[in-house]
Amino acid sequence: MKNKAVVTADQMKRIEQAANEAGLLYIQMMENAGRAAWAELAARCPAPGRLLVVAGKGNNGGDGFVIARMAAKAGWKVSVWLAEGEPKTPDACTNRAWLAELPVTVLSAGEQPDARGWQAAVDALYGTGFHGALRPAGQAACGLLNRARASGAFVLAVDLPSGLCADTSEAAEGAVQADLTVCFDSRKPVHTEPQGAAYCGEVLLADIGIPEACHQV
Ligand SMILES: NC(=O)C1=CN([C@@H]2O[C@H](COP(=O)(O)OP(=O)(O)OC[C@H]3O[C@@H](n4cnc5c(N)ncnc54)[C@H](OP(=O)(O)O)[C@@H]3O)[C@@H](O)[C@H]2O)[C@@H](O)CC1
Ligand SMILES: [K+]
């Protein structure tokens, strides 16, 4: 794809809004984002194993539910940890509901999984909506992902590692260290500035189908 401009979280929201108004619905963008991230993970971890998806309450968590669905269909043994409780945004709720039809273990906020024994872990806790410091639940979830990585799991960050601010690259104490970050449509400053990029690992930009014309916002 073309090397697009780096955009802020707010610009990204406006680009997504323009795409939605042009007919590429938000839920389709979430589907495209989750599938693109899953494809990159599957390419790096081709043998199905145990996958942990740590999901937040926003649309970043929604992308994580898409990944969980794709992984389960591909034969992975998938657990989803709702680290901050049930999702709150409509599209994330829809994708959460679709998991009920699959052999996916869903853990509530109070059921923290073990950090060991995962081939891969997906950080779908916070994306562009994160700002400020981590609260206790976020600290626990980011800590778990970092311990899973220390125990050998390959960590994929969805859009950006949780605990980082997309616009300033500022890293909250305890932020996630990823092996791979798949970002969507356009890079944000966190992907290009050294302070943020150090947490991202490899950065891949995925096309989620947004038409070029929608970037003139
Ligand atoms: N828009 C689209 O169509 C598409 C968007 N896409 C995806 O959506 C992502 C953006 O989603 P989003 O805007 O829902 O925000 P998101 O990153 O999930 O975070 C919100 C959550 O974070 C929380 N939170 C924030 N700060 C916090 C703190 N300090 N400590 C603790 N919690 C904190 C906040 O909680 P609250 O403050 O409301 O209690 C809320 O629950 C984007 O990165 C991409 O992955 C793709 O699917 C493509 C289509
Ligand atoms: K994330």
Automatic annotation (TrEMBL):
Keyword Zinc: no
YjeF N-terminal domain span: 12-216
Key words, A-Z: Isomerase, Metal-binding, NAD, NADP, Nucleotide-binding, Potassium
Domain of life: Bacteria
E.C. code: 5.1.99.6
Cofactor(s) required for function per UniProt: K(+)
Gene3D superfamilies the UniProt entry points to: YjeF N-terminal domain
Catalytic activity reported: (6R)-NADHX = (6S)-NADHX; (6R)-NADPHX = (6S)-NADPHX
UniProt-listed InterPro entries: YjeF_N_dom, YjeF_N_dom_sf
Sample GO molecular function, one term: metal ion binding
UniProt remark on cofactor binding: Binds 1 potassium ion per subunit.
Annotated residues for binding of (6S)-NADPHX: N59, N60, G61, G62, D63, G127, T128, G129, F130, H131, G132, A133, D159
Pfam family, any one: YjeF_N
Residues noted as binding K(+) in the record, renumbered to the chain: N60, D123, S162
Function in brief: Catalyzes the epimerization of the S- and R-forms of NAD(P)HX, a damaged form of NAD(P)H that is a result of enzymatic or heat-dependent hydration. This is a prerequisite for the S-specific NAD(P)H-hydrate dehydratase to allow the repair of both epimers of NAD(P)HX.
Protein family membership: Belongs to the NnrE/AIBP family.
Protein name: NAD(P)H-hydrate epimerase
Gene field: nnrE
